[in-house]
What does this fold into?
Amino acid sequence: MRIAGFVPWVLLLAGCSRTISLELPAQPLTVVTYAVGKANQRCSVAPASDKFHRLAAFLKQNSTDWRKRTADYTPSLVVIGSDVNMYFMDDLMVMSYSGGEYSRKVDPAGYAFLRCGAQ
It folds into this structure.
């Protein structure tokens, strides 16, 4: 009896996640890092750069398990593009684009390369 009551919840939760396959347009991106809620560093990511290609690969690796964003957040790193913005804070990534605003868990080491001055 408990399993029968549990199954609809599992199906409901599974239905709440989505896959987002996003191709970054070949346009410069701006990275802004924050400390204590204030921007403290800004740099650009060129479309032909290693960082740009690594970000595209990162997005492909993290294309599943996106959920509608439901909570407020204070980012420590923001990537600004013409059609998409990505907000990173610890193990959470929020992506805002024409399809909506979604979040998912990510490994902070996976996006450390985006920091200004990182190789």
